[in-house]
Amino acid sequence: MDKLQIEGGPTLAGSIKVSGAKNAALPILAATLLTEKPVVIANAPHLHDVTTMIELLACLGVEVMIDEKLRVQVAAKTLMQLRAPYELVKTMRASFLVLGPLLARFGRAEVSLPGGCAIGSRPVDQHLKGFEALGASVEVRDGYVLAEAPHGLKGTDIYMDLVTVGGTQNIMMAACLANGTTRLFNAACEPEIVDLGNFLNEVGAKVTGHGTSTIEVQGVDALGSGSYRVMPDRVEVGTYLIAAAATGGSITLRDAEANTLGAVLEKLQQAGAHIAWDDNQIRLDMGGARPRAVDIETSPYPGFPTDVQAQFMAMNAVAEGTSTIKENIFENRFMHVHELNRLGAKIELHGSMTAVIQGVSRLRAAPVMATDLRASSSLVIAALAASGTTIIDRIYHIDRGYETIEEKLAQLGAKVRRIS
Ligand code: UD1
User: Fold this and answer.
1) What is the DSSP string of 83-96?
2) For 222-249, what is each residue's pLDDT tens digit?
3) Which of 29, 99, 182, 356 is packed most tightly, with the most Cβ within 10 A?
4) pLDDT score of 119
5) Of ligand 1's atoms, which has the minimum distance to the CA of residue 127?
6) Using an 8 Å Cβ cutoff, are 60 and 84 in contact?
7) Are residues 95 and 114 in contact, defined by beta-carbon separation less than 8 angstroms?
8) Beta bridge partner(s), residue 415
9) DSSP states of 10-72 as a string?
10) Does the beta carbon of 144 lie inside 6 Å of ligand 1?
């Protein structure tokens, strides 16, 4: 099993290019099932999760090719399977996003329940509630969700009980081929939802209001072909900016969109970072200073993203002062705390959703273990800021979400090696 070996100490400096967003690429790839016409997706990152989604499409009978420019070409004309098997859905929750497109286009779909995962129970009740509101019959049998709408879906008003990114995406996709207009209230506003809406419109859907809490989808008979470039990964941007801040560094991220990162940039400024940006790059300069501790509380967009919480905690662990981090989205998203403490951090948990971090002037290297995707990137940041050489085990979690992380960190001057 691969491990990352990181020699802490160097201040990150230099410039790297940001990859395409995993969390935008996955729903967009699922959405290609809505049309029988060929679709080209550019800037999809080369990550395990994206490969899993491509495998799932192929398993449904879809033709998927990677062209010479590394774009993903999908032609869902040949689709012949309406069942997404447990083996693929269990490895990645986002696989559940094929349900909406399959149901809308074929009137039937059978998709394994994704089940829980390390960061919490993560139910799909809101997805199912949405499909039922659109007129589908939904049944859970033997671990699979069976959804049927033999006469097609019907547009309607849907009120989400809570803000869910995947739920909003699944319902939005299904509504594209429904008969009539769907209005989705209390929808998630994440930039990845905007990207999905823009992709859907590129192939002929009629989606408006994406990026606000009310999304309107006017159903059309069929979607067509098109090509689309996936947005830059704002979680990757946040991770590298925080890593630079934790090491007192100065970096430039190319192909980054500052307007998707408001809450993170503001918190980094409070921590003492000088941040400047233009249309497609962000520059952070910490001027060699130690960061100041900053309180954060996660919430749906435009609040502070849960996917950047662990990384910020790693920075707070070496910051000057004491901070509080409150996680409001997932009930078990503090697994990095014990590992960070192994590196000499002083973090106390108050219940399962609040952590109090007393900044220390230096962390010390230790063997640690990655437990989930974002928790593992917090260990990378802590290892970069620690004295000595840290070995991070189980980095397959990192490979799910960070493209060529060791190469990018090396470009910024880090001493990092993948070992097995
Ligand atoms: C997506 C992101 C993930 C991010 C999360 C929150 C992808 C592939 N993943 O996950 O990286 O951390 O958004 O920003 O884009 N919930 C329910 N019922 C439902 C659906 C969700 O109770 O039917 C709850 C979940 O358990 C969780 C909260 O709602 O507590 C938010 O989950 P959701 O926004 O759906 O996250 P995902 O779409 O799974």
Assistant:
1) EE-HHHHTT-GGGG
2) 999 999 999 999 999 999 999 999 999 9
3) 99
4) 55
5) 23
6) yes
7) yes
8) 7
9) PPPEEEEEPPBPHHHHHHHHHHGGG-SSEEEEES----HHHHHHHHHHHHTT-EEEE-TTS-E
10) no
Ligand 1 centroid distance, CA of 349 (Å): 23
- Tokens 């290892």 identify what position? 383
Which residue has tokens 């989606």? 207
Q: Whose CA is nearest to atom 25 of ligand 1?
A: 122
Instruction: Indicate the top mutation candidate among 97, 161, 165 to test ligand 1's pocket, ranked by most ligand atoms within 8 A of CB.
Output: 165
Residue 26 Cβ < 6 Å to ligand 1: yes
> Which residues in the chain show pLDDT less than 70?
115-121
Give which of 142, 211, 140 is closest to 172, Cα–Cα.
211
pLDDT at 88: 87
Catalytic residue status for 189: no
CA of 87 to the centre of ligand 1 (A): 21
Nearest CA to ligand 1 atom 24: 122
CB of 119 within 6 A of ligand 1: the answer is no
In sequence order, what are the residues at sequence separation of 6 or more whose Cβ sits closer than 8 angstroms to the Cβ of residue 319?
271, 290, 291, 292, 293, 294, 357, 359
> In this predicted structure, what is the pLDDT of residue 373?
87
- pLDDT at residue number 134: 98
